[in-house]
């Protein structure tokens, strides 16, 4: 059964997931912008420009060539101004203790500002424990990598099933998955899908792209993650409005077709 975001906000035990479900409904957007820009000024301008259109801003903070604490201060200010959450796509992948240090320490201090982070489950449950025990923001949500968009990736069905098991075991911390389709039937679990483009089918480094309707309607994912199709466009705001509209229409179609099929 496919419930609305508002219905699902009542079923999660995690405050960040609840916030995200509600702000998606309020802003009517399930668009996550992937801001893979390497200059602070470009990142901040992009975030300010498209902020009203998105529910999440996804960063790779370690690709900035001119990182400073000021960037984080400005990003968090923008997130409040435009009402979006911050997702640092760090893809932790080490033993619990190291992942914890990478999350909490160093120059980026991710734990102090990111609402959402993600991790590979390859090391086992210790990585989740390490991230959970870290000091930093009290409200935080973890996404597990259950599937990837790149051609030839090594994730198997069994691996995906393990990710779902782990999400259930840590239901107060794990808010969902990075995946190519809905993989969990638990309505509290969010599904976020990268590899989205209305034009390109692939890039030269094995990224593969699918359309919004395929992802949100047919594959029943919740949130589209869009990078180059937005920030490389000559008019990112116009582009973001279009992706947002299409993403929301596919979600609305899914909810209403579900309603009709069950009524
Ligand atoms: P693109 O420019 O829309 O291709 O960027 C996609 C973003 O999503 C980029 O930041 C990747 O690191 C991220 N990503 C992905 O593309 N595929 C995956 O399976 C995962 C993350 Br997990």
Keywords:
TIM Barrel; binds 5-bromo-uridine-5'-monophosphate; 263 residues; alpha/beta
Description:
The model has no long low-confidence stretch (mean pLDDT about 95). The chain has about 260 residues and is an alpha/beta fold. It contains 10 helices and 8 strands. It has a single domain (about 5-260), classed as Alpha-Beta Barrel (TIM Barrel). Helix 7 (about 155-170) links the parallel strand 5 (about 140-145) and strand 6 (about 175-180). The two termini are about 10 Å apart. An 8-stranded parallel beta barrel has the order 1-2-3-4-5-6-7-8, surrounded by 6 helices. It has helices at about 5-10, 15-25, 40-50, 70-80, 95-105, 125-135, 155-170, 210-220, 230, 235-260; strands at about 30-35, 55-60, 85-90, 115-120, 140-145, 175-180, 190-195, 225. The protein is globular and about 40 Å long. 5-bromo-uridine-5'-monophosphate binds near residues 60, 150, 178, 195 and 207.
Q: Which SSEs are present, and which pair or pack?
A:
Blueprint: H1 5-9, H2 15-27, E1 31-34, H3 40-50, E2 56-59, H4 69-82, E3 85-92, H5 96-104, E4 116-119, H6 126-133, E5 141-145, H7 157-169, E6 174-178, E7 190-194, H8 212-218, E8 223-226, H9 228-231, H10 236-262
Parallel strand pairs: 1-2, 1-8, 2-3, 3-4, 4-5, 5-6, 6-7, 7-8
Helix pairs in contact: 3-4, 5-6, 8-10
Residues 34, 36, 60, 89, 145, 148-150, 178, 194-195, 207, 225-229 line the site of 5-bromo-uridine-5'-monophosphate.
């Amino acid at each position: 059964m496919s419930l609305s975001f508002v219905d699902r906000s009542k079923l999660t035990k995690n405050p960040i997931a609840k916030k995200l479900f509600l702000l998606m409904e309020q802003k009517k957007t399930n668009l996550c912008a992937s801001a893979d820009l390497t200059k602070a000024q470009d990142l901040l301008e992009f975030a300010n420009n498209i902020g009203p259109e998105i529910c999440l801003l996804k960063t790779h903070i370690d690709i900035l060539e001119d990182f400073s604490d000021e960037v984080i201060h400005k990003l968090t200010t923008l997130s409040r101004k435009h009402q979006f959450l911050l997702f640092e796509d760090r893809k932790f992948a080490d033993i619990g203790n190291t992942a914890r240090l990478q999350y909490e320490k160093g120059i980026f201090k991710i734990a102090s500002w990111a609402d959402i982070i993600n991790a590979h489950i390859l090391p086992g449950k210790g990585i989740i424990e390490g991230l959970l025990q870290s000091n930093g923001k009290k409200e935080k949500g973890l996404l597990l990598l259950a599937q990837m968009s790149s051609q030839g990736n090594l994730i198997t069905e069994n691996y995906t099933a393990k990710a779902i098991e782990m999400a259930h075991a840590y239901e107060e911390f794990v808010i969902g998955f990075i995946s190519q389709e809905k993989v969990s039937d638990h309505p509290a679990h969010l599904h976020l899908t990268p590899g989205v483009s209305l034009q390109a089918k692939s890039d030269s480094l094995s990224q593969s792209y699918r359309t919004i309707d395929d992802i949100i309607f047919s594959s029943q994912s919740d949130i589209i993650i869009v990078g180059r199709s937005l920030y490389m466009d000559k008019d990112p705001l116009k582009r973001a409005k279009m992706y947002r509209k299409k993403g929301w229409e596919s979600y609305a179609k899914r909810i209403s077709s579900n309603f009709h099929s069950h009524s």
